[in-house]
Design a protein that fits this description.
two-stranded antiparallel ribbon, Arc Repressor Mutant, subunit A, 12% strand, alpha+beta, single chain, 105 residues
């Protein structure tokens, strides 16, 4: 027996940020390209772009920006902060559940 979890942030029933957005933004940061990140995650460019734009609209902030004078994309400071906070929350919850799992029969 094991306790599992999955967290995400939502507002009015719509996802703002969660594990999928977290992974997508980290891939964009690593690849410096939405297209390359989408390919890496085996998703269409359109699906990846739609998720980024939906989160930006719902959060009211830019998450990605194009690199001036170059092709490519980078995360905004707001996106980096969102990732850090989400990862910290996930780590805290995971630690609590690991402890709880040790106490299970």
């Amino acid at each position: 027996m094991e306790i599992k979890h999955k967290i995400w942030l939502e507002k009015d029933g719509e996802v703002l940020f969660g594990p999928g957005r977290d992974i997508l933004l980290k891939a964009i940061d690593q690849c410096h390209s939405l297209n390359a990140a989408a390919k890496k995650l085996d998703m269409s460019y359109r699906a990846a772009w739609g998720r980024v734009k939906a989160s930006e609209k719902r959060l009211g902030m830019k998450l990605v920006a194009n690199e001036p004078g170059r092709t490519g994309m980078h995360l905004t400071e707001e996106a980096k902060k969102m990732i850090r906070r989400f990862d910290q929350l996930d780590e805290k919850i995971s630690s609590l559940l690991e402890e709880a799992n040790r106490d299970l029969p």
